[in-house]
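Fold Annotation — chain and its backbone
Encoding — discrete vocabulary of local shapes
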Amino acid sequence: MVVGDFPIETDTLVIGAGPGGYVAAIRAAQLGQKVTIVEKGTLGGVCLNVGCIPSKALIAAGHRYETAIHSDSMGITAENVKVDFSKVQEWKASVVNKLTGGVEGLLKGNKVDIISGEAYFVDSNTVRVMDENSAQTYKFKNAIIATGSRPIEIPAFKYTKRVLDSTGALALKEIPKKIVVIGGGYIGTELGGAYASFGTEVTILEGADEILNGFEKQMTSLVSRNLKKKGASIITKAMAKGVEETEDGVVVSYEVKGEEKKVEADYVFVMVGRKPNTDELGLDQVGIEMSDRGVIKIDKQCRTNVSNIYAIGDIVEGPPLAHKASYEGKIAAEAVAGHPSEIDYLAIPAVVFSDPELASVGYTEQQAKDEGIEVIAAKFPFAANGRALALNNTDGFVKLVTRKEDGLVIGAQIAGASASDMIAELGLAIEAGMTAEDLAMTIHAHPTLGEITMEAAEVALGSPIHIVK
């Protein structure tokens, strides 16, 4: 280790190169800052390497397999459909590599210095960056912390070769015959659903009354129904107790309605949430305020109580979403450059890549009522849409939440094919202060799934065309 090294000076130091950090670094560089980014792992963070991107690739591959064996209603049949899972994994890796390579190119193209190592705060203007062989001191005017989160480990389910977190679940070399998923949140539901599509027998253990807690029941019930169609078992109000490993699998014990039960599987996926990576940065050296859970407290500009240090992404309050981190990264970079930018979470979407997909933005009907807002909730079904029928994918609906007094769009929920893409129009409507009439009078191409949004707006106005009032 080098002792007494000469400090390297930079304007803005970004710690973490995930979807929050790398976006913050690029935006700060665009605004004239000299930027250094430090990453101890791989560029792109959890999202690109072992999270959002590889999981969506695996889900897409599972859908291809399902389509190949379940298209007989369209007159298409296939015999001996095979899955070479090693090739699926190779393809998934190629998608990840393209994106992480792209991030490196973007950072270099914006003249951001990329440093590999772990950063530790010495004081409010200094960090020490260490790797296996050396240490280097960096002096900065401003710092943006974007270190992300990691899976929570349950004491009774320590990670092993058969007790896996999301990273391990995505890296399996074969399609397991049976898996148990502890946690029916969005990660557990997505990965459980992906393997169910490949024919794995899936058991989901969820402590709450429903999977995907936080989404409306009329949405989650569609996902539960489709999981069960694929042979999955969903056990709610269940408490996972422990696991015994055998030579070729696991036995998971759990309690439901006061009765202890056991289920055998090849693997158990532990997906009960994530915790912020704030415990090994030396934040106490600088006096940065945190909650009991290790979440950093910030103001409307992502600034911590130490005025030149900012924090974004999974390490601050709010849902652990990549697009939230990227949004906050831009705000923090602009604040560093002296712009009056502030965070506003009203139109931040939440998406689950389940079957069908779920997406929500703004207020739910219940949230609006809880705040004393009089609303109209207007629904239009996918089953009455020509494109959905032609896709043979008619599960779901679009639900608009509009303010009764003036028709202002304040929320929307979608369950159905391409919900993840369709929610963007409704996020824009909320962001732009649009009304149901604005949506209804926007000409949507026919036949498209986007028309369902227009039709839901017509329902809100009391003049639907393609369903009887």
